[in-house]
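dumping this here before i forget
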Amino acid sequence: MPTLPDSSPSALGAPARRSEGREKVTGTARYAAEHTPPGCAYAWPVPATIARGRVTAVDTAAATVVPGVIGVLTPYDAPRLGAADDPTLHLLQDLHVPHRGWYVALAVADTPEGARAAADAVRITYESAPHDVTLSVDHPRAYTPEEANGGHPAQREQGDPGAALAAAPVRIDCAYTVAPLHNHPMEPHSAVADWDEERHRLTVHDSSQGAGPVRAALAALLKLAEEEVTVVSEHVGGGFGCKGTPRPHVVLAAMAARHYGRPVKISLPRAHLPATVGHRAPTLHRIRLGARTDGTLTALTHEVTTHTSRIREFVEQAAVPARVMYAVPDIRTTHRVVALDVPTPSWMRAPGEAPGMYALESAMDELAGALGMDPIELRLRNEPRTEPDSGRPFSSRHLVECMREGAQRFGWADCREPRRRGPYLIGSGVAAATYPVLVAPSTARAHARPDGSHLVEINATDIGTGARTVLAQVAADALGVPLDSVSVAIGHTGLPAASLAGGSSGTASWGWAVHDACAALAARLERHHGPLPAEGLSASADTTQSAKQKSPYSRHAFGAHFAEVRVDTITGEVRVRRLLGVFAAGRILNPLTARSQLKGGMVMGVGMALTEHSTMDAEFGDFTEKDLGTYHIPAHADVPAIEAHWIDEHDKHLNPMGSKGIGEIGIVGTAAAIGNAFCHATGHRLRELPLTPDRVLTALGRRTG
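structure:
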């Protein structure tokens, strides 16, 4: 292990090790399911086995005689919940079954084995209704929503793209498909709920990306004041978006704990996750590009069709990235959605950007082929001066520099000809990446103690990104003290309120509040004379006003991905030989944790390109890939030598740290770079992900059956 620099007064920008690293590797860091209060009971939910319809009867007789069973909650006798902004949390309140896997009962027992046995013994009778789970571009119920995820307008148009396309001397018209994808964090969705009847208080340990939203949801559903609910999410073993909002497990645990008067623990089995905690919705793309013979874009249309559930609308904003990427005078981007009998989709790492940029960057590569132009040169030729959609200037945009540095590091000029080595075809590809700069209001407190130590308090959540460490670095920098004198308390609703961990907004949002609190504390310490009082000195900050100010700038991170692949013409296997990313993401606050985040995103991009997909069974109405035995995430053998670099970007229009989000841009563009490399190697374009052997062999003209 390389030697890292000692803590110093200027800790920001240093490659500091994770402050909680020792606890994690020694097993002393306690995750949600590792809290077991005295008298803890265990719960196991019962999923519906029909794709649409209603429950007509529930027989719990066999379940209630299982040894150790405490009870079974059903739609007939479960406690009545209050209003819910999210209908997916209104559990066991009626007999309606909106999709397969919807929870229709909950067994509670003294042991997890007893709870599972009781759940298996519950007999549900249904009245089935016809269902539809099949997405198509021409679906008769497809409609244009008012907005897509993130509040983006569902459609935007500038100029006359239809006429511009018709007049363009070079045109492409391509359709791309991204299958449903699932988050599958290492730690399952778990919660432990403890109801104190005497104090009228609920305490919950939850695996969540935001303790605050969980508290708000539970208070509303259980008809409690938020002050009567405490939620702790101190350590979280990954999320990737599926833990970004409260999920059914925590509601069921809280409901059962209050009903039975005992602490209740629930950990969802992995096979339940696809139907329960959200998924990346499938997206069908049609992209048309028009250009002059010199490569100048004249027209762009990006049309996206996706699905949502019948109980809550969620529209993947996959056409939005096209609004900021290239200088196109005539452009139209649209989203259409079909409400089907499927689980409600939700966030998955880089929602919108990941599938949208796969389609756009594949189309740009196809246009480069039609023009006979180098793919990098085509992108550089269409670099915009301002954001095409809004006309706002970019606060910083160094995509050109990322492309050029990446080309130099990758040896792009030396690998423009595809190669063949025996049965293997080798090719290389490139794609651009972008992700918006997001920030949300947060609050923080900072304390200076008489012993020279400092404490920062903020209800942030570390989902494995190293947030604790970076926030300590921000604090040490603002205070002008050694990093090892700062400790950070996070993941508890008793701490100052902060935004959830999502949208690559954590460091920008929380760091801003921590910086301001520590700057205020530093000013107070400078005015103080003599020893500190026994209680120390403190200062607080609230960034609500600052964070809500609308910026006159378009603020995005950018990047360039380069991939080299090897295609086995006999087996159809596609292997990534090497992967390189170069990013412009503001000031990198901790190179050690930043590189880990960027590489992690790139690994997920490899999975998106080569192995990860889910299939909706039209007859059965369910995802067929329900666990890690059938849903194939990249293993060690699938991950090549990955390099992640960044340019030194100074942007004064962001936040006091000058940082942009890095958690998601690593996945954006990776799949397109791999797909483009496959086309370069084989001369065949596959427009549906992932690039599985059956599709590859078909493209190569080899028999697959």
